Automatic annotation (TrEMBL):
Organism the protein comes from: Penicillium subrubescens
Stretches assigned to the DUF1254 domain: 46-180
Limits of the DUF1214 domain: 359-447
Coiled coil stretches, renumbered: none
Signal sequence, renumbered to the chain: none
Name the UniProt record assigns to this protein: DUF1254 domain-containing protein
A Pfam family matched in the record: DUF1254
InterPro entries with a match to the protein in the record: DUF1214 (IPR010621), DUF1214_C_sf (IPR037049), DUF1254 (IPR010679), DUF1254_sf (IPR037050)
Length: 476
């Protein structure tokens, strides 16, 4: 399809053009869902897929993955029946059973942060029940809780932190003990059975390749009516706007006087405008910022923020589960994700921590480095992150595990520029030869000090690489 206005349409219809931009933004998370599910197209609906090993540099299915937890997930389909989840006893660690609707809204969590117990939980879909999230059921109920989904289709994602290679075996045992079975309901079928092959089919055309923008809009046409917004008050105007954008009866036909290319540009521009709105990004000091809980995990009516996260960090948890503070150089405005930095072949980036990041019960933290493709960096140590479970040292050589708190550093330096032995435990290798990198500071189960300005976030400094020939004259 021609995306310009000049060849086919001599004038732009502003109302339809605005509607098309919104439709693209609204439906983009469906495209992100498709990218994820196509990598696991052989996994049936309502069946577990267990990631058995921690993610390494050869993993390419999702950008900016974490190297802290093992995942178990289900592409759930509640069209014909509800689902009963059995939560095994999971001890001495962070764990979360997170539920996402089709648009990656994290509308419910069961886990260690809320001191939830092992047992049975019901995942339910009822289009007449507009109260979404977890309802803790009474003592006489068969279930410890009922989770009501706003859409019949979605994703269940379990995260379980891993301490080390030996501990991974225990986490694999927890995965094996997870169970899911169908649970009959009196209402019967409430939607068509979910055929995930739709994400393959929308990319096919006898006329040639289908653009990403048109795939987004085809998916929106096919799925939006069955999977409405979780914000009930928005549903009517969304339906009207989607129809103006050419979406009707499950099909997309581009309206006259519109440009897909301009619609995508307008949608992307509105993302930046949302991030820069007052109150959306909170400064934390030393160039670090934190995204408001309004645009973290469960997005409600912030469709532009939902679009942003679907592009760059799909399946983000809510802020009570985790935060991702972002650092920006003084010359760059916050964009909600974090700065990309160029590191030279003989340069390093030094993170000078004032103390350990603060976490609540069962929480953990880590710093992860990504290459220009937003994937983990291949390196000689097979080390992709450093954090509370790592063998980090204080400047005097004492392990962080052996002292309650104090200043310490993490050194990001190219893989082919090996630092002196005293820095090895605190070295996070960047790409050999340098290049474009970015990083995530993850804090799961964050304490209030991490967001109220109490904790002093690390200073980030670009320095000459530290080598046996060139040592730092002083260390914090």
């Amino acid at each position: 399809m021609d995306t310009s206005t000049s060849n086919n349409f001599p004038s732009v219809n502003a109302e339809r053009q605005d509607a098309l931009a919104f439709a693209y933004q609204y439906g983009f998370p469906l495209y992100a869902y498709g990218r994820f599910t196509k990598a696991h197209i052989d996994t049936p609906n309502n069946a577990f897929y267990h990631q058995r090993d921690l993610i390494k540099a050869d993993f390419t299915k999702v950008v900016r993955p974490n190297n802290d937890t093992l995942y178990s997930f289900i592409f759930y389909d509640l069209s014909q029946s509800d689902l009963c989840f059995h939560v095994p006893e999971i001890v001495d660690r962070y764990w979360a059973f997170s539920y996402y609707d089709m648009y990656a809204n994290n509308f419910a969590n069961v886990g260690s942060q809320t001191f939830d117990k092992p047992g049975k939980y019901l995942l339910s879909y009822d289009p007449e029940n507009l109260q979404y999230g977890v309802r803790k059921d009474g003592a006489n109920s068969e279930y410890l809780g009922t989770i009501n989904s706003p859409t019949p289709y979605g994703i269940f994602l379990a995260r379980l932190v891993v301490f080390d290679d030996e501990d991974k075996k225990m986490v694999n045992g927890f995965q094996d003990a997870m169970k899911v079975i169908t649970a009959k309901r009196s209402s019967g079928a409430l939607a068509p059975v979910f055929d995930r092959n739709i994400f393959v089919e929308v990319a096919q055309s006898t006329d040639g390749p289908v653009s990403e923008a048109e795939q987004v809009l085809r998916l929106t046409a096919a799925l939006a009516q069955i999977n409405p917004s979780e914000v009930v008050q928005d549903r009517s105007w969304i339906a009207t706007t989607l129809e103006k954008a050419g979406i009707k009866n499950g099909k997309f036909n581009q309206p006259p006087g519109t440009s897909l290319e301009d619609a995508v540009a307008a949608a992307n521009k509105s993302v930046q405008a949302t991030v820069l709105s007052a109150g959306m990004m909170k400064p934390l000091g030393n160039g670090w910022t934190f995204s408001s809980s309004l645009i973290s995990g469960d997005f409600h009516s912030f469709y532009s923020a939902r679009h942003l996260v679907a592009m760059r960090g799909y399946l983000q948890p809510t802020a009570d589960q985790s935060i991702y503070p972002s650092w920006y150089p003084k010359s760059q405005s916050p964009d909600g994700i974090g700065s990309a930095c160029h590191i030279g072949p003989k340069q390093a980036i030094l993170f000078s921590f004032s103390g350990k990041p603060r976490t609540n019960h069962s929480g953990f933290w880590s710093l992860t480095i990504y290459n220009s493709a937003q994937l983990l960096v291949a390196n000689q140590l097979d080390r992709y992150s450093l954090g509370d479970r790592s063998n980090l040292d204080y400047p005097d050589g004492t392990s962080l595990r052996d002292r309650a708190d104090g200043k310490f550093e993490i050194l990001v330096q190219p893989d082919d520029v090996v630092p002196p032995a005293k820095y090895i435990n605190n070295w996070l290798p960047a790409p050999a030869g340098g290049g474009l990198i970015s990083f995530n500071l993850r804090v799961f189960a964050p304490a209030v000090e991490m967001v109220d300005g109490t904790y002093q976030y690390p200073e980030v400094t670009v320095i000459d690489a530290i080598t046996p020939e060139r040592r730092m004259s002083t260390r914090l």
